Amino acid sequence: MKLATTTITDFSNYRLLACFAHPDDEAFPVGGTLAMYSSLGASIALITTTSGQLGEIRQDGIATKDTLGNVRSAELRESAQALGINRLNILTYKDSGMAGWDANKDPDAFINANPSIIRSQLVKEIRTFKPHVLLTFEPTGLYGHPDHISISQQSTDAFHYSGEATYEPDPDQPIAPWKVSKLIYCARPLGYRKEWYDKLTAHGIEMPVPSDEQLTHGTPANEIDFVQDVRAHLEQKIRSILCHKTQTGPNWPYRNAPKNVIESILGYEHYIQVHPKLTETDLNQNEIGIFNGIQI
After folding, report:
1. HEC profile for 44-108?
2. Full-prediction pTM beyond 0.90?
3. 30, 31, 83, 124: which one has the fewest Cβ atoms less than 10 Å from its Cβ?
């Protein structure tokens, strides 16, 4: 696991497409990275497949179960603006809920959608936007959320199909193939929940004790390729997170945490480069990161 570095200062010709499942997925795990590259000139697009209708409502009076999807979509638009995202596409699939919920059986839930239809939608966006990098969750979805796992699978699928000349999502409106240069997964290191709990409670901030299952969440450090230091964009990332008022609420733990604790938790974002895979030689080079090695 290496700290990302780059000597490139102008990213105005670079494009990144992030594919996630819910409003706030763009903020918590990768918001600093998106904000950083946007500020350096890169074009950032975001696909969010659901409006997060089954999320929590952590602030009184701003949403009901019936209005939560619309409210969260509005929060997402504000968050995208805060991060400097240029292009936002919110699809219309239903939130599938957490693993084991009855909502998992809803035929309209994202996890039950026809994979070929999702592939078509994602490939159309890829071929239209022409990103150099496609970014999504690692295969376990950070903590096992069914929608996170599904968008990881579907995005990986679309990454490969987009460059295939024999695949045409809509024969009536053909779009030229586009081969994305890199597929990157966002990740969190194994044991992150315990680390966060220890750091926050040490400063008197109340947090629920992680369950045995939660302690297994995360990716082993030796499987994470690089870490992006986003502390310079932490204020922007937090502004994006706080756009999601339904999900943070007045008791969001980072409101009262010391700056150094916030930086140690939210100031670093972790990535796995899936394609092309990094070799030992690559990892030993001076520069490694989201756009490194892409020829424009």
Report:
1. EEEEEEECCCCCCCCCCCCCCCCCHHHHHHHHHHHHHHHHCCCEEEEEEEECCCCCCCHHHHCCC
2. yes
3. 124
